[in-house]
Records
---
Amino acid sequence: MIDLSPLFASGPYKALVVGSGGAIGAAFAQAFCADPQCGHVELISRGSQSDFDLSNHESIRAQATLASGKGPYHIIIDATGAIAINGVGPEKALSSLHPDHLMQAFLINAIGPALVLRHFSPLLAKGASVYAKLSARVGSITDNKKGGWYGYRSSKAALNMILQTAAIELQRKNPDLRVVALQPGTVKSKLSQPYTSSYSQLLEPAQSVAGMLDALKALQAKSGAYFMDYKGIEIPW
């Protein structure tokens, strides 16, 4: 059972997961569905009946409209994102940069999630609530010690700025809202598989999600967004 009581005043809560078709999104969905305190969980993924498409603004808006009838939601998780773009992995050198690849990286990892935030944040419950988006440690400018991965790093850094900026705006109306950029750790998944051959131990999606939910339930309300990993340790922006 997930204890999210510190986040919510009392009684059952409602959850919404965008990107529930991926390994981490599916693990979030399973965790919420297994929690008797979760009164309803709304799942949104590519290929769903609403034809959700992260690269299509109208489909994002339409899905939010459909989901609004089941809300308001006490916790929204956006588990979307991509490392490889159209089958091409992250660029390791400046000589590998291509404008189309960069634009697609920003579309999937920053612009699409920004529009999800625009249309889904109005569905949050008043008072203590959470909007959490999967980010990545490589999106930290301070923590960048290795270079490379230009499009992925830059698009995740842009995402983090979007979350921080939105948190400031949304908290003017709801100071109890927590906006969180989440680093899930290195998780065993189709998304990460091509890049994890050097890792001796990978997290199962359920392990990562359990850690992230524990971290979320421990958050105190504050001005601005959090950037933290699945262990609840804050990451420098």
---
Amino acid sequence: MKPRVICHMISSLDGGLHPSRWTESPDGSRRDWTALYQSCHEKLEGDAWMVGRVTMAEMSKGNPHPPREHGKVDRPCHFANREAANYAIAVDTSGKLHFTKNEIDGDHIVVLLGDDVPDSHLAELASDGISYIVSTQPQLDLPAMLDTLNRELGIKRLLLEGGAGINGSFLAEGLVDEISLLVAPALDGRAASQSFVEFGEEGLAGKAQLSLKSCEMLEHGVIYLRYAVTPR
């Protein structure tokens, strides 16, 4: 049984994801908008949040440091902490992330990895006290990994928080139950940043159906939209 997955994002009017690159507004500042986003994050009461490799790299900031020697490593799973109050989950198919600690703001780190990740990288994660799940299929088996997160760690509500590629992959596989989107009164304007969700040339037409649950005007000119998602 998978957790309930809520894709929780904030974007400019034209879909940009990086507030540092947005225009300013007399209604509020970038700091005001990100504070509202974090407030809504907390109100959603997730027991885990998930991001892709690029987003997590901004927080992990480690260098490769595999153990010089290691014995047999655990596959497909290793859980260093099953009792955490909250989990920070990174999707890192190729094993490129390296960490300086095993938590982010108190949330225990779990890494989802591709099936060909080397044992040396798994040994590094284990020695750092970080949990991981390795896919048993050539392509990342997201449904099975979500089931494992629920079964092994008790995760019942997961907040999916980008970037656009991982959001698109989850939506394409019918794994998102709700979209929670804050829209700030700002513009990005760069051609490469026009969506909080991306799924290559194929797109998502015919893969999901959205139904509006609520629309709320927040402080600082921010609109808060929530949609139920039905896979198709």
---
Amino acid sequence: MPNTTTSSYQRVYVWEFPVRLYHWVNAITVTILIVTGYIIGNPTTITYGNEAYQQYWFGTIRFLHFLSAFIFFFNFLVRIYWGFVGNKFARWNNFIPLKKEQWREMIEILKVDILQTKMRGRISLGHNALAGLIYFLSFMVFLFQCITGFAMYSSMSSSPLPRLFNWVVPLMGGDFAVRQWHHMFMWFFVVFIIIHVYLVFYHDYVEGRGTTSSMVGGWKFTRKD
């Protein structure tokens, strides 16, 4: 898709539709997984006047959790694939800092985000080096949550996918240990969402390149000079 220009800024198509779709599907499923997972780990007693056989609220919670987990998993596989075939902004080399320029950019971003210093020099138009590394680490947590989640589900499911991970439970020391690790990393998502939303709006303000709106329309802006 050709880039269009204005007086002092160039309009660049950064986030392709599969990347944007992955982002929003991921945001919805992770939110549902956090809420339902917390309830499953800390069940709330709700009293109804109906008979027990007429109540199925906890079963609904579990169903939503399992359904969201499957959608989350296959959505994650699509993103892994797109990291190999997508445009230069979606490729995996944006997530692993192998160049000196990326490490210098990470230090610059840390100064801007933590010390609130003035931004010097250009920052990557796609994911900056620090964001890319954090996203890569979050992908590792995504993978861990998928493995431990399917491992716990394998004991109550005859589906081939969960049963591929039934070896994880004895490896990690039993069902209780797997559940504890799975629940603990749920809080990683909670902290990640809070920091992620803050930094998106902050960098939108600092950079002025349409960071927030780019995940809706795909376009960012950069100076022509």
